[in-house]
């Protein structure tokens, strides 16, 4: 690919992280531009159909929606992160959607101040992760030794717990050794580490506290 790429992002967005991870795995140079989603600039609203990130500028073209962006990157830049077999590839795409549902539960845990909603989201998340546990093999990644886009989808979800675990033990990883091993392998991967700003955890904590959510009101463990 010869066109210049610009990833338009928000510092805490897990969907942006997916694209950043895939770009890093493919060693594709790009510029990253952060926007304030609470004060969206006019230029951003003009090119973002849903007013959301990520956007990927490819020359004069603009792509939106993280799934479309990572699919484009995988089709145009080696090495392929999707499996070659069509059935397996379709299953991976389905697990990417499952990963988005996991993020939905985590979002509720982050922002709700309602105890019943919090408890329901925790149970739902635990159930989803248990389903993932039954799908995983020997690892270290989702499909074994090869890193895939499914890994890029779940890594940002797991990253939240670097902060959440210091606020409360939600026990969502209890009894799930394969998921926990996968989580640790992803956290150690350079593309995952570098997908966020160095002070990401501090920024996430400030975000939770600003929301005055159940989690945000808890004291940070030493």
> How would you classify the helix and strand content by structural class?
alpha+beta
Strand content: 5-15%
Give the averaged pLDDT, no decimals: 96
Report the end-to-end length measured between terminal Cα atoms. Answer: 47 Å
By DSSP (H or I, 4+ residues per run), the number of helices equals 10
Descriptive tags:
four-stranded mixed beta sheet; alpha+beta; 55% helix; globular; 222 residues; single chain; 10 helices
Tell me about this structure:
By secondary structure, this protein is α+β, with helices and mostly antiparallel strands. Helix content is 55%, strand content 8%. The chain has helices at 14-25, 42-47, 66-76, 86-111, 115-135, 149-159, 161-167, 177-187, 190-193, 200-211, and strands spanning 5-9, 31-34, 55-58, 61-64. It has a four-stranded mixed sheet, covered by helices on one side. Helix 1 (14-25) links the parallel strand 1 (5-9) and strand 2. Helix 1 (14-25) packs parallel to helix 3 (66-76), helix 4 runs antiparallel to helix 5 (115-135) and helix 4 packs parallel to helix 6. The longest helix has 26 residues, at 86-111. The protein starts with a strand and ends in an 11-residue tail after the last helix. The model has no long low-confidence stretch (mean pLDDT 96).
Strands, helices and their partners?
Blueprint: E1 5-9, H1 14-25, E2 31-34, H2 42-47, E3 55-58, E4 61-64, H3 66-76, H4 86-111, H5 115-135, H6 149-159, H7 161-167, H8 177-187, H9 190-193, H10 200-211
Parallel strand pairs: 1-2
Antiparallel strand pairs: 1-3, 3-4
């Amino acid at each position: 690919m010869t066109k210049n790429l610009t990833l338009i992002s928000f510092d805490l967005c897990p969907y942006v992280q997916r694209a950043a991870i895939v770009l890093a795995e493919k060693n594709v140079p790009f510029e990253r531009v952060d926007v304030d989603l609470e004060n969206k600039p006019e230029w951003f609203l003009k090119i973002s159909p849903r007013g959301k990130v990520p956007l990927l500028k490819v020359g004069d073209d603009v792509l939106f929606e993280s799934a479309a962006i990572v699919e484009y990157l995988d089709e145009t830049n080696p090495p392929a992160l999707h499996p070659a077999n069509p059935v397996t590839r379709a299953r991976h795409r389905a697990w990417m959607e499952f990963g988005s549902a996991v993020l939905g539960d985590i979002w509720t845990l982050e922002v709700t101040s309602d105890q019943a909603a919090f408890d329901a989201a925790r149970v739902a998340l635990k159930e989803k992760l248990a389903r993932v546990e039954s799908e995983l093999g020997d690892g270290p990644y989702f499909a074994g030794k090869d890193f895939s886009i499914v890994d890029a989808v779940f890594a940002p979800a797991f990253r939240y717990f670097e902060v959440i675990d210091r606020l409360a033990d939600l026990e969502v990883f209890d009894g799930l050794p394969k998921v926990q091993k996968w989580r640790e392998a992803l956290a150690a991967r350079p593309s995952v580490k570098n997908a966020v700003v160095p002070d990401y955890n501090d920024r996430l904590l400030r975000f939770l506290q600003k929301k005055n959510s159940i989690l945000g009101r808890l004291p940070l463990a030493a």
